[in-house]
């Protein structure tokens, strides 16, 4: 009896064997290779409370949110630039308490009564609530280093940073204010382009802002345009590309139409790195690439240089 049991146990080993036997190569590639990965992801998600850590999309490192904020939303490991809100960016550039916001309460009206998948009115309400912004740009006058400047900072989280009547009007007013006060102007752009919900009214903003910039330039006042990821279409085709100095953040996508549209239209292979800040620097469309962590310091250097140039011309 005992011998039989022993034999059975030995035989039992045989039943374990199939599980240890490696599965055929194709199965091993897919199912076996994927399983442990899924398990790791699940346990990680459990361990990491939301809103404390961010995962860098470029280097996949986990970064402590507080450290990321302190580094102006730039990855400490690989330098990837995370999106940053307009208020946070203004805070990182201007001297404490020096920023006087203009037209803070200006809001868009739905002149065309536009309705697509959702009405423009409901979109505006939803974005005003979720972003706590009134529209896609914040403008005002503030001190950067020792320079008083007119400053406009766009925010991509509000309807893709699209340029409607309010964005155009606020930017025009800050340009006019800078001209009137005889101070330099800095516009930090990020935009998907014109706001389609406002049709022709959004396209008119391209001419309006460019016209105001022409008066600013005529007064021999410097304008620095800062392009951040992404700056495209109607904004790139107007004030964003009119800077006396045009600088960009690293790896920012900059262009008019998107690469997919260009590829489909021209049926041509696009060169590597097409429409990135680095590509455009190589081809002379922009003057410099400045990491966000050095932005304030570099802007002060440029403003010093341009102010000195203006003084010499005046003298
Ligand atoms: Zn990174």
Description:
It is a single chain. This protein is an alpha/beta fold. The protein has 11 helices and 9 strands. The protein has helices at residues 2-20, 25-47, 65-70, 86-93, 120-131, 165-181, 199-218, 233-236, 259-266, 277-282, 295-314, and strands at 53-55, 62-64, 100-102, 137-144, 147-154, 185-191, 223-231, 245-248, 288-289. The protein has a 7-stranded mixed β-sheet, sandwiched between helices. It starts with a helix and ends with a helix. Residues 1-25 and 27-43 have low confidence and may be disordered. Zinc ion (ZN) binds at residues 56, 58-59, 61, 75, 77-78, 80. Zinc ion binds next to loops.
Task: Please supply descriptive tags for the structure shown above.
single chain; 315 residues; 11 helices; alpha/beta; seven-stranded mixed sheet; two-stranded antiparallel sheet; binds zinc ion
Helices and strands, with pairings:
Blueprint: H1 2-20, H2 25-47, E1 53-55, E2 62-64, H3 65-70, H4 86-93, E3 100-102, H5 120-131, E4 137-144, E5 147-154, H6 165-181, E6 185-191, H7 199-218, E7 223-231, H8 233-236, E8 245-248, H9 259-266, H10 277-282, E9 288-289, H11 295-314
The chain binds zinc ion.
């Amino acid at each position: 009896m005992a011998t039989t049991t022993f034999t059975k146990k030995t035989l039992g080993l045989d039943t374990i064997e199939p599980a240890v036997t490696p599965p055929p190569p194709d199965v091993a590639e897919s199912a076996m290779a994927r399983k442990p990965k899924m398990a790791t992801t699940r346990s990680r998600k459990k361990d990491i409370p939301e809103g404390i850590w961010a995962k860098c999309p470029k280097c996949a490192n986990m970064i402590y949110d507080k450290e990321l904020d302190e580094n102006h939303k730039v990855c400490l490991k690989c330098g990837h630039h995370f999106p940053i809100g307009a208020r946070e960016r203004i805070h990182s550039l201007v001297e404490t308490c020096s920023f006087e916001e203009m037209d803070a309460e200006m809001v868009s009206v739905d002149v065309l009564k536009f309705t697509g998948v959702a009405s423009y009115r409901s979109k505006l309400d939803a974005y005003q609530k979720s972003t706590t912004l009134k529209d896609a740009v914040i403008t005002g006058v503030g001190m950067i280093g020792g320079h008083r400047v007119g400053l406009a900072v766009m925010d991509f989280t509000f309807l893709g940073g699209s340029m409607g009547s309010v964005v155009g009007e606020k930017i025009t007013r800050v340009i006019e204010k800078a001209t009137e006060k005889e101070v330099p102007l800095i516009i930090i752009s990020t935009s998907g382009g014109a706001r389609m919900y406002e049709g022709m009214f959004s396209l008119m903003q391209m001419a309006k802002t460019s016209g105001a910039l022409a008066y600013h330039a005529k007064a021999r006042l410097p304008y620095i345009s800062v392009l951040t990821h992404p700056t495209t279409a109607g904004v790139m085709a107007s004030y964003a590309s009119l800077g006396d100095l045009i600088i960009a953040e690293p790896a920012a996508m900059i262009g008019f139409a998107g690469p997919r549209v260009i590829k489909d239209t021209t049926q041509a292979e696009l060169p590597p790195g097409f429409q990135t800040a680095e590509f455009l620097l190589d081809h002379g469309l922009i003057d410099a690439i400045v990491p966000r962590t050095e932005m304030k310091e570099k802007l002060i250097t440029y403003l010093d240089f341009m102010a000195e140039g203006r003084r010499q011309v005046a003298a």
